[in-house]
Amino acid sequence: MRRVRWILSLIYKALADGQVDVIAGDATSAQIDALDLTALDDGLHYFPPYDAAPVVRTAALLGHAEIGRAMAG
To answer: Which long-range contacts (CB under 8 A, 24 or more apart) does 34-43 make?
Structure first.
């Protein structure tokens, strides 16, 4: 088995083109549907859950109070 490092934005295209057989991608990527790929269920919980978190530069937050208000809900 050959391991190759890919640029994240290109791995779905590589899979669709048959350059690789399996990738560890992002289950929410729009490219999955766009390229007619199938996201497999991780029934064995091999991959840890992905919990997104907003991240902002302090300078941006201090300069634009509306960012903080929007993030606070």
So the answer is: 37/12
pLDDT of residue 73 exceeding 80, the answer is no
Helix, strand, or coil (residue 31): helix
Measure the CA–CA gap between 39 and 25, rounded to whole angstroms: 9
The one-letter amino acid code at 30 reads A
Pair 24, 8: CB distance under 8 Å: no
CA–CA dist 51, 72 (Å, integer):
17
Integer Cα distance of 9 and 14 in angstroms = 10
Are 16 and 37 contacting, i.e. CB atoms less than 8 angstroms apart? yes
Q: Is the pTM of this model over 0.85?
A: no
Interval 38-65: pLDDT, tens: 999 889 988 888 777 888 999 999 999 9
